[in-house]
Amino acid sequence: MKKQTPESQIAEYAQCIKKEPGHWDHLYQIGGQDLFWPDGSGMNLTRNHIISYKIDIQKLCEEYALPVPP
To answer: What is the pLDDT of residues 4-28, one digit of tens each?
Structure first.
């Protein structure tokens, strides 16, 4: 498997950031499928995913001297 370029990794993370709020809204309105965890735990995990993707993008931009996407 070929290693991804920093630009393609940033684009992939940005796409994930765009999808996560929809998942959060789904959990907020309908709830999750896991009976052993409250829905708020899933919502917090989704929030943490968004934060993690943003941090990863920031690190890649700093490492490769790329502009941070808006």
So the answer is: 999 999 999 999 999 999 999 999 9
Is the whole model's pTM more than 0.90, yes or no?
no
56 within 8 A of 63, measured Cβ to Cβ: no
> Distance between CA 27 and CA 60 in Å, rounded?
30
Tokens representing 32 are 């999750």
Separation between Cα atoms, residue 42 and residue 32, nearest integer Å: 7
HEC string of 16-65? HHHHHHHHHHHHHHCCCCCCCCCHHHHHHHHHHHHHHHHHHHHHHHHHCC
Of 57, 47, 45, 70, which Cα lies nearest the Cα of 7? 57
